[in-house]
Design goal:
Oligomer: single chain
Shape: elongated
Number of strands: 34
Structural class: alpha+beta
Largest sheet: 8 strands, antiparallel
Length: 670
Amino acid sequence: MTTKNLRNVCLMGHSSSGKTTLAENMLYTTGAIDRQGRTPDGNTVCDYDPEEIKRQISISAAIAPINYGGCKINVLDCPGFFDFAGETMSATRAAEAGIIFCSAKDGIAVGAERAWKRLKKINMPTLFYISKTDEEHGDFASVLSALQEKYGSSVCAAACPTSDGTGVIDLVHNVAYITSGGKTTTADIPAADADTAESLREALMESAAGADEALMEKYFEDMTLSEADIVKGLKLGVADRSVMPVFCGSAISGIGTECLLKAIVDYVPDPSEVEGIDPDGPTVGFVFKTISDQFGKYSFVKIMSGSLSSDMSLQDVRTGSTDKLGRLYTMCGKKNTEVKSAVCGDIVAVGKMEWKSGDTVCDPKADVELPPIEMPEPCYSMAVRPKVKGQDDKVAMGLNRLNEEDSSFKVVNNAETKQLVLSGVGDIHLDVLCSKLKARFGVEAELFPARVPYREKIKAKVEAHGRHKKQTGGSGQFGDVWIRFEPQEEQEEMIFAEEVFGGSVPRNFFPAVEKGLREAVQKGVLAGYPMVNLKCTLYDGSYHPVDSNEIAFKTAAHLAFKDGIPRAKPTILEPIGLLKVTIPDANLGDIMSDISSKRRGTVLGMNAEEGMQIVEAEVPMAEMSSYTIDLRSMTQGRGSFTCNFLRYEEAPGNVQQKVIEEAKAMADAD
């Protein structure tokens, strides 16, 4: 195998648009498997994880190597469900082209739109595949027309279905691929489809000619192009994204699969034709995916430069450590086949390495570090705890292991709220993580709303007295302080000052008073949240030459705090976030209404960008817990958002009352 004989393609698009079924049919068509599995039966090569079989959706990107036409095509089957967008982002780092799926019945779904945006952003060659053409109410022509209307004249049909539904017409080579009983044969274009094919072929020639000046001149002279010229034009056009050919078929019956395989070989760039890939350079690999399960750990590596063999030692640029490679494998779903070496541009799995997704691994002499994988921002957070007490460490350990293979979620142990907070892309994402915890690590976890880290402050100035006197048998304890509490805006942290005259409180007890106050401000008097923007001034007191000690003055400071703060007009502050929502124009009214009425937010402004509206608003973080799900529902999955902490602000009275009641209920429960 040489780099020239490799093709790496991602299958992308909406969930249930037929990506996994097509990968399965490609394997079956080329003889890699002797029986075609079905997603409902849970026996496909690419959906092998127990969670995928249970839910009947792809959760992680899987690889299916296909041998066709003297080439090895690494097909990366990507999840269509939005919660697993991180897997798609990882997979596109290993591919040279993306194939976007649109179902003949459903047209351009949101998943296809998102795939388009992703491929446009990274400037990757793009093909379209209209799936399920044999289903009732499937309409190839209307989906093609919708694609051209949405994405412009660069979209052109390179194949179309026969009107009797038995095959597809390859418009480049002017031949029909007829499929019957799982076998595909070539035939002349049916007479009933001749006019349609001719019309689409003319548009295809025009697109192919537009990719190259010499071809354009040739086309204008003769008003036609040869097959070889069309192939050349399409190859050039696909590479620079000036042509986006559309293919079609039905993967369940194998219609159109051979036509698409031929197109991938003919039009998709081989790795050596892509910037950043160097077959003659020192060995450099990019770890784009990691699998860590009970059977071991595999690091999936795209070879970006040089070649790889199992006797090599590579350096992980992130850690600086150099390790001898474990065994090399090519993967087909979960099935591994050991190989001794692999060429530039190929994808291999390396066993038992301590590499992470996004790592660059290379020859120790090569000074190269590739950009990390861009991941979707985790924007849905829930607290997680074990169902059985005492298994907290097991939950944390399991999540850390899962994080090795899925870096699109974060786990934070929030010391303030005393919760382990799990943040992912959506509710299904977190649900799957909990299911994996049970299946792989034997620990059942439950999700519940994460507590909001409120703050407390005072609005008035008060003077308070704290006196601690305790007499037991021998020496007693005596501490007596007068402290002024007042609000301040210099800093969030408490400011301690002293104005003691005449030694009424000896200087050596000042640190004990300060320590007592710093401990006290950790739990405010309203709902037990930390106090901020507070100034405490020790200005008087008294002591006993024998009984006074540090503990006594520390306790006296606590008592002054308890006496003074309730009289200083305490109030609760809530965290405010800066929300940026990107949505289609059509959803603008709903989103702005939702922000102001349902979420107590204030819209700051908006601006248009690439046919979308970006709305900026300030919103209390307490109102954002379900926003991921709500926004998805309001925009049918087209919207996205970020929300970052901005500042603390006084909460309205009704909110304060609710927070106080919740804190009291929690204290009673404890």
